[in-house]
Fold these 2 entries.
Entry 1:
Amino acid sequence: MADNLEPTPQPADAIGAAVAPPRRSEWRRFARVFFGRKLYLIGFIIVVIIILTAIFAPLIAPYDPLVTDLYATKQGPSSEHWLGTDQIGRDVLSRIIYGTQISLIIGFSAVFASAIVGMLLGLVAAHFGGWVFAVIMRIMDALMALPGIILVLLIAGLAGGGIGVVIFALGFGAIPGQCRMMCGLALSVKQNDYVLAGRAMGMSNWRIMLTQIFPNAFPPLMVGITMGIGGVVLGEAGLSFLGIGVMPPTPSWGGMVNDGQRYLLQNPLLSIAPGIAIMLLVFGFNMVGDGIRDAVDPKLRGVL
Amino acid sequence: MEAPQNNVLLEVKNLKMYFPITRGLLRKKVGDVKAVDDISFEIKKHETLGLVGESGCGKTTTGRCILRVYNPTSGDIIFNGKDISTLSERRLKEHRRNMGAIFQDPFGSLNPRHSAGGIVSDPLKVHQMAAGKEMNDKVAELFNLVGLDPGMMDRVPHEFSGGQRQRIGVARALACSPSLIICDEPISALDVSIQAQIINLLEELQEKLGLTYLFIAHDLAMVQHISDRVAVMYLGRIMELTGTDELYENPLHPYTKALLSAIPIPDPIAERTRTRIVLKGEVPSPINPPSGCHFHPRCQIAIEDCKVTRPPLRDVGNGHFVACIRV
Amino acid sequence: MSIVLDVQDIKTYFHTEYGLVKAADGISFQVNQGEIIGIVGESGCGKSVSILSVMQLIQTPGEIVDGKVMFDGQDLLRYTANGAEMRAIRGSKMTMIFQEPMTSLNPVLTICRQVTESLELHLDMDRQAARERSIELLKGVGVPDAERRVDDYPHQFSGGMRQRVMIAMALSCNPRIIFADEPTTAVDVTTQAQLLELMKDLVTRQNTSLVIVTHNLGVVARYAQRIYVMYAGRIIESGLSDDIFNHPRHPYTVGLLNSVPRLGERHGTRKLIPIYGLPPNLINMPPTCAFLARCTEKVEKCSKEPWPALRAVGDQHYISCYVDIKGK
């Protein structure tokens, strides 16, 4: 504004006339960009619906997903079973609804666990540099050199199936990515003089890492985390499809696709319906990730 | 302040800062960047020592060694009679409150995710010098001191202009009531019309609080304006060190002469009568600096001997030090 | 002396999400053949936008709303920004040197490739001739060992050397006018002196006009014959270099000169007089003078009447101010 005077210690009238610049809310800007584009909005709505479905699954689902009805197997869509029933007569819609819970639990836990470990390692590597950096990053390189799916198969195969193992396997596989991303961002944040200022005033290493570097490196990482959830859900589906993921009879989307593929010609909906659910979830989280990226910093487009 | 016998606040003796150049997976050392190569000077209480030179001359590194952000390769940094160059990090922390630092970039030197008040109170928190209401009062007092409205304490840096941000930086430097402030290019990122505001603020604070400044800059005109004495650096070494007026009126080192003549003056008439010494070539790399006197390949009065011997920084009278065998 | 470039009342506006920014609001200036002029102002005053408008290098959301750019008898604004006519002029008759020598050269092409580019494009030279000419040009701007270094990549050159390459490129097609946008801001003082002397020698020899755009008053004092001082999108004072620096008449110019220390003043003899306040935000500006809030000379008329147009206060000396501080 033209009448903004910078307060200066000398002339009293200049201080008196000091007008603070208008406040700009970061959140409002974020919301404007994020909700300003249709695709991001659609993604956001999908994610919200999926989360609500998972939370209220017992209220929404018309049937118990585990109850079998051998008199009504492999049925097509009907008014009683909107998406039909599977080979042992369980309601497909109910199983998909309950499957949402499993997918999200695995997605969130694996991604958050890997993010915490990965980011911590990345932060430490970037902050201390030298041999610490070399050791951590070489280990990450080695992990990255193993194709992710083989690593995951190895862990899941050795430890057997189950939700816990799936979370561990998928989370472990995601650590190198999170670590590298954090390390790169932290290295660039570290160049700023406020980090230097912190050291000059005697801040401890942890304080510098957690209060100076981390808050500035985190926003772009949100993108990776959000998109990571989609990736992990896909990974879980893959494992369950291969039969080493979530153990039956727990409803899992990947497992349902696997079970259904044998009856693809008789009732394609058995595989296609959970497939579409997976697709929607991945799409939703990716769009939200894209939206966050654009809203946090448009310059990141094409980088992340 | 603890009372030392003389009025010297900071003494730097034979300071060297070499950064190793490493190569390969095993980080084998293949050489050194001699950023600061054996320099000595002292700063008296309440004075401003200007440190000038072109980029890469080691002036910023010198400042950071004094702040102990870098651990010097060798040499002594004696602050108030106590050598701080080898203090352990824990002992150092106690000392750090005696020094403040102002940085060049008013955008990069303030954490964009913290509020202005939070940034200014950081040193107080680190040194546990105040808390709660007391800290709030102290921060408000600092805001007033540097000419900022304390009502703007909870705003984040991007809501301030460049000049205001630099004031936040000054307030942070003053938070622990230090006696020495290292000002590293504090105005070069600011608009011309704003620079004078910050310079005047620094001068007033010095008078009011009895501060001592190490003023690092490449703008010789500004250094002349604010400094009592000036040290000219070139490739990690001090070439000349003397009182400000003496330096500008009677420069002895050929590099100082060239540097002074290269500074443009905003006065066409004065410019026309001035002869400009245009130096040949460019500043050599500090990885492989010239032998003997670092300046000899560009010097107009260099002789054979200049390629061999490193000229000592010697006193030619009245506290005028110069490192040149031809003077 | 013939006028090479006559810019008349250029208006370049940026349509931003926060409102209309009048980055250049009625800029007029003339450049004579072989003349060096300086355009001086602080960041955001519209000095770069003005010359980018002349070259039609303004990008969206910017738009040249109005004005005339007479260059060698043709009105450049009647050509489309990327049309054949404009492209034939840009880079050959009218060239530009940018501030950042690191980013204005393409890092993946050799120096030779980049210098010969415009020679081949505008002068229809063949490969070999263009190469020989570029070696000649590099020698002319003082790149040592030019025959060998012409095949180097930009990162193998220092900042000062890169800027010499930029100068060689700007001169390659014997331009009528060169715009230098903060040409020495990114280099050290001694290098700055080298580059400025070099540019001056070259343009004087070729009788080319040079427009130096800078925030550093000292840089133009030595070389420019005439100075234009800009503030908030307008020229607020113009005149011969001696007049501007020694007898400034606009309060802003006076303030600017008072706020910088001069080399050679004895230590402690003069306190700097800063200009208080901040440069104005260019969004939705009031019609009154943009310097009003910071002005120490303001009179009642200033806050009532709109920002005045430039008026003559002496030989070739113009100010846009109701007050004329001649006595000071």
Note: Chain C is about 30% helix and 25% strand.
Entry 2:
Amino acid sequence: MRALKSLLTGVALVAGLAGAAQADDKTKVGFIFVGPVGDGGWTYEHNQGRLAVEEAFGDKVETIYQESVPEGADAERAITQMALAGADLIFTTSFGYMDATLAVAEKFPAVKFEHATGYKTSDNVSNYSARFYEGRAVQGHIAGKMTKTNTVGYIASFPIPEVIRGINAAYIHAKKVNPDVQFKIIWAYTWFDPTKEADAAKALIEQGADVILQHTDSTAPQAAAKEAGNVITFGQASDMAEYGPSPRVSSIIDNWGPYYVARTQAVMDGSWASVSTWDGIGAGMVGIGEISDAVPADVKAEAEALRDSLSDGSYHAFTGPLNKQDGSVWLAEGETADDGTLAGMNFYVEGIEAEIPSN
Amino acid sequence: MDLSQINPILLIASLMVAATPILLAAIGEAVVEKAGVLNLGVEGMMITGAVVGFAITVNTDAPALGFVGAAIAGAALSMLFGILTQYLLSNQVATGLGLTLFGLGLSSLIGKPYEGMKVTTLAKMEIPLLSDIPVLGPILFKHDPMIYVSLMIIAGTWYVLKHTRAGLILRGVGENHDAAHALGYKVIRVRLMAIAFGGACAGMGGAYISLVRVPQWVDGMTAGAGWIALAIVVFASWRPWRVLLGAYLFGGITVLQLNLQAAGVPVPVEVLAMSPYVITIVVLVIISLKGNHGAPGALGKIFHATH
């Protein structure tokens, strides 16, 4: 059904825009979204980035987008349609679009593509991502300090490096301030399914978790935590401030706007080249949402100090000594993780009592 | 792995919440099928109820009104099916499928402005005294009102079908509509009432998802619950109390698989995620092997007075 619907939307999009494309020489920027722009999280922030592009260039740019495009075979069709509609630059904003983006890019060498959170590039495909794990480190610190049951619940989406990195970063920093902390992880196998996310949050809370971290995009876990009371959460991808000051005590905010504006500018003046961008708190791509008063002042100060040290580069979120889950040495004392290992991270660090499901 | 982390009391309480949408939809469909009509549009009526209930509650801040509106919307949509199949004699399977597709599209259209909004949810009702009983109290007497409503609907349906004249007529119409017609019963009128009841129940089931279980509106959020409800009706051999059993069994597995994951039980996630569906299929096969399903005799057959 969803496929049928997005097909019809796509056809309307192509029909409506084909005429306009010939009429003027506006730079056309397309966006493929994995959820609805009203999800309040991941896709919402990408759409804010799209609006920033419109704001920056006004009449010189035209943006188009398609929402709720499933990862997988249907994505290739949606991206192709956007390229056929005359887009000059297309942002595909979810990990699962990676191979589809490369396949379409091969067929449209004149169109520039930007894929979010993946690791592959080609002549006309860049990838970009944010170092969300820096934000996870701050969340882990607050979680470790705040939990009274020593149980932190984690709603994970898919077992891919980005998500595993987040779990590890949060765990390392929670463990550092609370040696007894334990992580309970539920794999939802979705980026956006409020019903499943709500059920997962409830199951974690019932098993004693009083801190819920989520790597899924909806605000449903926030609503579940609010109902349960005495549970804290963090906004994911977007501030989710409407759930503050409690349960939501802080958040990771993705800030795509400046990047989208810069890349659109590059297409306009012909300087666009394929790059891999991976920016963190320092470059402003990852923001830490206001830490609310539900967090004691000393914990808040520590968390902000941690944020600042990550921001200015004086501290790396993965600094040794760290062992892998099986006990083997990963990083020696003072050693920091290289980007290659982080990009392909497929192991838990020592102390996490769970297994990564085989993908 | 540490199974002791799973609190059975909380597990049972939350499985009741997870099961209520399919419970409501299934009991409504059971009555429809008892009257001899197969309405495959349950999913469409549920999602329409979900969005209408959500929209009304956002605008009025009264979840009770939301549920009433959802029931009316579900019933109204089912009347479309009723008119097509009962008066225009269209094929019930095709019309029901059409109703599902129509409902999904309609809800998407209505729901667009409501994406990402927050809503007032139903307050939990702690029944005095009874909720203090150890074990049973937290399981049975600390829920939101809709859970009690759903249980009352089950009990009421059982009583009406089994012990009243109206129930006898409805079953008669479902078993053999020509005989019922010859006796002077208004077959089409009885069926339309049953269809409206089914639509209202499905609408409320959908609203339970968007107003209590999540509570949010998301496009396509019923995610196949209507089809599960249809399976539960067969699973239950069209008997109200077995509908309750089937819905709670299904809801229980859904909740249990999340709890097992959180407790770190090393069972592959995929197996857990598909287990409710596998069990439904297995149970259906077992029931089929027993031969007599107890299906109403005139189920899915078109009635016309001149035949």
Note: The interface with chain A takes residues 5-7, 10-11, 14, 18, 101, 104-105, 108, 115-116, 118, 121, 209, 213-216, 218-221, 223, 254-255, 258-259, 261-264, 266, 268-270, 273 of chain B (CB under 8 Å).
